[in-house]
Amino acid sequence: MMHSGTPSLLVQSISNITGYQCKSTVMTYLGAPIYEGRAKIGYFDTLLTKLHNKFAVWKANFLTQGGNLVMVRHILSSMAIYLLSAVVVPKIVLQQINRLISGFFWGSHEGKPKHNWVSWKAICRPILEGGLGVRYIEDVVNNFRLKSLWNGLEKKSIWASFIIGKYGINNFCPS
């Protein structure tokens, strides 16, 4: 995968030397899509399919509401965490993840979703605030972004050091 502005002659010669073929579609590395330009919803179909398949297996086990809560809090939320920390994910994908997780939590009866007695935002509040302690996916993404910003301001990350060195930023921290 090369930049779209790379001359075709250079791409062809690199392909001949290395034996690798040029690929213009999205690729995945360690489960995260590698792409050029804006993130598209289709790049995250693998994650959504993986979550959907997990739900299908667990629904067959007839878990109680408490069992569903444990699965949501500890397993399902963490399945998406790595991807969310590595790549910028479109909001629609985040909403679909939340919809899949809430649908699994509430369950279904005879193919129809059960009635949601409480909003998903209320369930995602901390236990001390009356929620069930489930992590809201959009909040997790915001936390990752704030953590990256903080690490950049404190110059503790490799990327912050790289950017500061590349662009010659001396006083990065606001006063």
UniProtKB/TrEMBL annotation:
Superkingdom, taxonomy of origin: Eukaryota
The protein's name is Reverse transcriptase zinc-binding domain
